[in-house]
Amino acid sequence: MKEKLVLDPDRFFDPNPKVRKIARELYESVKNVPIVSPHGHVDPKLFAYPDISFGNPTELIIIPDHYLYRMLYSQGISLESLGIPTLDNKINIETDKNENSIIHKYNSTIKGELEDKNEIKERVEEDPKKIWQIFAENFYLFRGTPSSIWLNYEFSEVFGIKYKLTKETAMEIYDEINEKLKLPEFKPRNMFDKFKIEVLATTDEATSTLKYHRAIKSSNWNRRIIPTFRPDAVISIQSKNWRKNIEELSRISEIDIVDYRTFIKALKKRIEFFKSLGATSIDIAVLDPYTEELSEIAVDNIFASALKNTVNENDSKKFTAHILMEMAKISIEYSLVMQLHCGCYRNHNQEIYQKFGPDKGCDIPVRIEFTENLKALLNKYGNNPNFTIVVFTLDESTYSRELAPLAGHYPALKLGPPWWFHDSINGMIRFREQITETAGLYNTTGFVDDTRAFLSIPARHDLARRIDSNWLAGLVARHIIDITDAREMIKDCAYGLAKKTYKF
Fold first, then answer.
1. What is the pLDDT of residues 395-410, one digit of tens each?
2. What is the rounded distance in angstroms from the CA atom of residue 369 to the CA atom of residue 416?
């Protein structure tokens, strides 16, 4: 029996009638304001050409989303059965001559053999309908999670699906979405306008040609999609591909990188290129936000060792600490916002990492420290009126103990919203409750969706607007703020803070 998919208009609001009434009013005032998405990982190729389409439902919704196959894998469902290619599988990415399709077809031809000759490799599933059926049969696993909230919003509000996704409705819903994806109104550019997106920032490697950003800018489609400078691959001096990445940085910047000075010169040249295409921020991911300014001789020596592949772990840590100081200085020089994502232990499951590579749902939050680690950076640049650093963390224990007091003092420091594992109803509530009394609202950035899934953007912003409306309604009901304050604050949460912080 098919069950109706119903999104209650008062979902996520407090059951207390007084609070719910105020929350409803606040939400109604911002539910249709434009979306500002200052940081995320949507592929700019989606918007480079007017005829690009999304492909089929499996390629659009399941394959790119590690939130989904992370949960499914935890229940013993193999990644191969979900169409995730292994590293020793050949991947064919097929596009037509005009690059009108982003369909990814995976060829499961085995190229090598596992070390254990007796182990039989599982075939990577290629049939998108079979993958979708597995997903639908296990969709119940996501009950109560952000993924179910986002996906049910997409199914109902974006695709007009009338029934819940189950084993019985799987193919009916697949076919309905598949047919709609062929319609002009479901092409990425048209969806961009339907979602009322004012600005969308992508995340791009320092060596990127920004081919698709250039295509967007040179087209007649006048929408604001901008790059974000991500230098991680060229500043992680102990990563196995670092030398290769430095060679690519040399090539694309046309600067022969032979020492630290020429390295920084090449980075600056790339930043100038990113800025020419609208970039307003830098984004750096580190496990530990340790900062330290090294002498010119010390950093030169470490960089020289890295070029010779003789750098040790301690020097690598010191180099990262110094480069954070350098990137703060560069951010001021080029009027860019510096973003810092901290506290993520990458690729914890080594078997999955070795078999499938990174970004397969194996990342885990860890404890970190900010007060001592950021002292060098904040003492040198935190009082500078031309500097903005936005900090994101996966360690919630630092909210009230460290981050709120730091942001409540240093003019340069702003707090990014709950990120990744904490981008959820309770995560947002914990953030507001632990941050606001010390840092206030205006030392935060507003909502940042940080998504790879383009269609989830309106769902994520809708959830954030509802949770913030309910939070403010609770403050009004307890007479901590009045309704006039709340009306102004919800507009800043939904729109104003992000525009101001990211210089839009």
1. 999 999 999 999 999 9
2. 16
